[in-house]
Structure formats: C-alpha cells, structure tokens
Amino acid sequence: xxxxxxxxxxxxxxxxxxxxxxxxxxxxxxxxxxxxxxxxxxxxxxxxxxxxxxxxxxxxxxxxxxxxxxxxxxxxxxxxxxxxxxxxxxxxxxxxxxxxxxxxxxxxxxxxxxxxxxxxxxxxxxxxxxxxxxxxxxxxxxxxxxxxxxxxxxxxxxxxxxxxxxxxxxxxxxxxxxxxxxxxxxxxxxxxxxxxxxxxxxxxxxxxxxxxxxxxxxxxxxxxxxxxxxxxxxxxxxxxxxxxx
Amino acid sequence: xxxxxxxxxxxxxxxxxxxxxxxxxxxxxxxxxxxxxxxxxxxxxxxxxxxxxxxxxxxxxxxxxxxxxxxxxxxxxxxxxxxxxxxxxxxxxxxxxxxxxxxxxxxxxxxxxxxxxxxxxxxxxxxxxxxxxxxxxxxxxxxxxxxxxxxxxxxxxxxxxxxxxxxxxxxxxxxxxxxxxxxxxxxxxxxxxxxxxxxxxxxxxxxxxxxxxxxxxxxxxxxxxxxxxxxxxxxxxxxxxxxxx
Lengths: 245, 245
Hints:
The complex is a heterodimer.
Chain A: H1 3-19, H2 21-41, H3 45-77, H4 80-85, H5 91-120, H6 129-150, H7 157-161, H8 163-174, H9 186-192, H10 196-208, H11 218-238, E1 243-244
Helix pairs in contact in A: 1-5, 2-3, 2-5, 3-5, 3-6, 3-10, 5-6, 5-11, 6-10, 6-11, 10-11
Chain B: E1 9-18, E2 21-31, E3 36-40, H1 47-55, E4 58-59, E5 62-67, E6 80-83, H2 95-105, H3 111-124, H4 140-152, E7 158-162, H5 170-185, E8 189-194, H6 197-200, E9 205-210, E10 213-218, H7 220-225, H8 234-244
Parallel strand pairs in B: 3-8, 3-9, 6-7, 7-8
Antiparallel strand pairs in B: 1-2, 1-5, 9-10
C-alpha cells in the first residue's frame, strides 16, 4: 500500500464530489432536514436529547454506506475499477482512498449536524466535539467499507438502494435509537448485540449526554474498531485484480 | 528506458471459460516487440477476454501469459498501458483531471514533469481546447480520445487497446492510426482488438480469432495472399480461413 496512491484516489473522490454542486448541496441539506424534522416533531426536550445524538451515529452509517456503495458501484459499472485494477496500485490503496475521501464528507456532515443540533435545536451536549468526531470516524470507516463490500452484490443503483431496508433499517430499529434496547424482547436484544450501530448509538450517547470520554466508552470503541477492521478486509477482498473462470 | 525483450507478449496453451462456456481454448501466441498486433474476430470470438487475460485482469484456467518476460502482475503494471472497451473515465472530472489522475496512479510523482506530460498527451489526442471541459459533456469520439490519453500517459512500452476505434469517424480513425504508427516506430508494442477489417489493414501483424481459437496468423499481405487470389481483401481472407476450418 502506498500513501501517495491512497491520497491520489481520495483527492479524486473529493474533486468529483466538489465539482457536483447539487450533490454538495444535498450532502449539507439532507441531514439538516432530517435532524430538523426530529427536532420539530419531538416535543419533549428529554426525548430530543436522547434521540438527536443517536441520529449522528445513524446518519454517518447511512450516508457512508449509501454514498460509498453507489460511488463504488459506478466505479465498477463504468469500467474505471477495471482500469485501476490493471494499474500498479493495490486494492488497499483503493479502499484507503475511498475511506479518506468519503470520511472527509462524513465528518463535515457530523460537524454540521452537531452544531445545528446543539446550537439551533438546543440539544444537550456535555462531551468534547473532537471526541465525538473521533468516534464518528470509527463508525464511518465501518460504514464506508460496508458500502464498498455490498456494492459487489448490486448490478445497478436500484439494487444498491434495496440494501437500505436490508442492512440499515433493521439496525435503526434494533439499536435503541427510538426506544431503549433493554425494553425490547430478549431475542431482539440478542440480535442487537451483533449490530454495529448498537455500539455507535450507545457510545455517542455516553459522549454527548453523560459527558464521558473515549476511554470510558472503550468497549464501544473497541467493538466498532473490530467491525471496521473486518469490513476493511471484506471490502479489500471484494476488489480482485484477477477473477478466475 | 525499459529493457528490450525478444517477445513482448508470450501466451502458451491459454484456456479460459465463463462458467461452462469455453471462451479461450488452448491458445498460443508470441508477439514480437515494436509492432502493432491486431486481434481480429467477430463479436464473441474472445478478443476482449484474451486482452483481459494478457493484462492480468483474468486468471487463466490453463496456460501462461508473460508480458515483457514476466507474468502480468502489479509488479509490471507500470510498463503496461490498458484502454478498456468502455471509455472508463470519471465523467464529472475534466479531460485534464482524468489524464492527470491516471498519470499519478502510474507513478508520475514529480508535479512539473507530470503537468508537462499531461499537457503533451492532451495535445496528442487533440483535445487541448476541451482540456477544462467535464468528460460528461464530450462526444463519444472525444471520450475515446481521453481514454487513449489515460492509457498512454505513463509512456508504457506495451499497450493494450480494446476496440479503440469504435465510434470514431473516418478522419479521427486515421489520426488514431497515424499516432499508433508513431508509437510503434518509437519501439512500443501495441495489441489492438477490432472487429473491422479497416483496422486490420493498418496492423503490422494479425491473428484471426474465432470461438476462442486462432484460425490464422500473419501480416495483412500474407493473409490475403493465402487465399490464392491477388485481389482478395482481408474480409475475403477471414472468410477463407473460416471455411478452411
């Protein structure tokens, strides 16, 4: 793996997105609309304080997965991935470039949502922004690599969209965003233990609501980091230079 | 300079199948350096699969491929240029940005030299006035030219071009061939797939492919002469070899 190749790919991704002004506008506006809808529709401030941090973790998973998945799908269908695979760069350069490129936008989104939630919607936050950002990076790495991996199983954008109800929605319902995991039936609690967003929601609430630090939520960080490493390996394995017959 | 090889590409006993369908069937071929070598055949004859095997994007079921004396792995990818059948470009990026991206990917690190080479290639493919235009706004023929630019920007001694003249008007096709002749004169080896006999006439050496097998090999003159008719065209020669079996 070469840092220069990784940076070249990340730079290309950032350049592509920046040149598409509508995408940039949507990247900023869509999370704001979602968090605004939640802010307006939740009358009880305690419920909003409970829900808003969870949305930070959820949105980075959602956008990281979707943007990378569709972007990588285009890379495959347009033939540029084949061109890259015929070049001297490794598949880890490609995954690394995608990570850096899309994490840049994911972190920008996180900051926008964080400041909007805290200063406009008056969501309580007792944690440090930098710790929230570091934690979001860990979730984002997993999301970007998960999107890269699942793009292998889609032949077009319509199929990629079908992974939202399959991969993302169950996590959103089972990870304690809207109601505590402890109030769910035992078998659903058991399932939620295998879903990365459970640890994302758990950790970010501890950071923002309880004012804990990354060290205090080491278990959540560790499990999410393990998922991230696993998804990086899966994503890299899904990009093969030479397919056999 | 790259070391001079006696054989630019050596293919021995190569077989490849998609599922149960044999696409390349025990094919052997030795391509000398410094020539334009045409792979001619109808759709489905195995031209693209053979190129992808030679570039290292597919792994053969049987047989070996050696490019410039070595297996086609990432280790020698810098010495190979590859233009896939699809334009395989980043449509949001400009002509210059696409060519610059592949220049970086192929290891042209020095900024000033890279910029000079990118400018040289943009002029070579006759797109200087369009250099700052997004690829999505270009015509099909212009995209083909950008794609060619991306394949040759790192000055490789061995270049694979998969149907490079598809969709080009006669004038542009002639300018492509003029450029290809310039490349072979400077010592590069070009392997070009096509299904048109017009392209075949420009090649130094040719193979006729049918159902994954070589049915004839020689210079355009030799193949025409083999029919025994002094006025035979390459199309006549192709039909002659098909009928001869």
